[in-house]
């Protein structure tokens, strides 16, 4: 198998979520001196972008997205330390967590995988994350973006509580706030004062990149 065939195969196996084969091909590629960045940017990321596109068209559903994301996450475990060594540029830092009172994390985990695949450094705080824990993480990691996830309508008010906590800590202007989760809408995100909302994982990555680019452009203006 030559380099091009390997990248094509890695793309195809990621698309269908064949985790063991994705790991095998990733290791094979590295053994063939295919750089970690090549594997990421020429096979894994394009494949996950295609997964996102199929999801938006209604050709793929959450289970397909999850298995593809999981397959890619396995490859990222191998590539992450190598990418760090090559000084691969991270797009930005993203602190993510499911809000207090909520233990759902499938959607959040999928977004994390997509963000990592797109070059973000993701700090996942897990589930049931209280406002003070978000504050501590923001102070420690100085992220570009913080993401609040909620799966239950009863925990959505925590978005506002978290944003109020950010304001009180004097951090609101330091960080972009994104919100998401099954019951969340653009209207609700606007109402609580979030900077961005996305309906699904692939949209979240596009939105995060867009918000970050705009913020950086404004900073240089």
UniProtKB/TrEMBL annotation:
<keyword id="KW-0479">Metal-binding</keyword>
<protein>
    <submittedName>
        <fullName>Cobalamin-binding protein</fullName>
    </submittedName>
</protein>
<dbReference type="InterPro" id="IPR003759">
    <property type="entry name" value="Cbl-bd_cap"/>
</dbReference>
<dbReference type="InterPro" id="IPR036594">
    <property type="entry name" value="Meth_synthase_dom"/>
</dbReference>
<dbReference type="Pfam" id="PF02310">
    <property type="entry name" value="B12-binding"/>
</dbReference>
<dbReference type="InterPro" id="IPR036724">
    <property type="entry name" value="Cobalamin-bd_sf"/>
</dbReference>
<dbReference type="InterPro" id="IPR006158">
    <property type="entry name" value="Cobalamin-bd"/>
</dbReference>
<dbReference type="Pfam" id="PF02607">
    <property type="entry name" value="B12-binding_2"/>
</dbReference>
<dbReference type="InterPro" id="IPR050554">
    <property type="entry name" value="Met_Synthase/Corrinoid"/>
</dbReference>
<feature type="domain" description="B12-binding">
    <location>
        <begin position="91"/>
        <end position="221"/>
    </location>
</feature>
<feature type="domain" description="B12-binding N-terminal">
    <location>
        <begin position="1"/>
        <end position="91"/>
    </location>
</feature>
<keyword id="KW-0170">Cobalt</keyword>
């Amino acid at each position: 198998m030559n380099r091009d065939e390997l990248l094509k195969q890695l793309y195809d196996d990621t698309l269908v979520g064949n985790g063991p084969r994705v790991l095998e091909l990733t290791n094979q590629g590295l053994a063939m001196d295919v750089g970690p960045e090549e594997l990421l940017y020429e096979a894994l990321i394009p494949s996950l972008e295609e997964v996102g596109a199929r999801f938006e068209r209604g050709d793929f559903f959450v289970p397909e997205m999850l298995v593809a994301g999981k397959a890619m996450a396995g490859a990222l475990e191998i590539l992450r330390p190598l990418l760090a060594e090559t000084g691969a540029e991270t797009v930005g830092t993203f602190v993510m967590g499911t809000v207090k009172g909520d233990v759902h994390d499938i959607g959040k985990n999928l977004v994390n995988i997509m963000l990592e695949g797109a070059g973000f450094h993701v700090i996942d705080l897990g589930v049931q994350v209280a406002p003070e824990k978000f504050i501590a993480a923001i102070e420690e990691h100085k992220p570009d973006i913080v993401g609040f996830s909620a799966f239950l309508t009863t925990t959505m008010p925590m978005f506002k509580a978290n944003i109020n906590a950010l304001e009180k800590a004097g951090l609101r202007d330091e960080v972009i706030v994104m919100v998401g989760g099954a019951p969340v809408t653009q209207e609700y995100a606007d109402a609580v004062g979030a900077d961005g909302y996305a309906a699904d994982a692939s949209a979240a990555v596009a939105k995060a990149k867009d918000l970050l680019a705009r913020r950086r452009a404004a900073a240089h203006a």
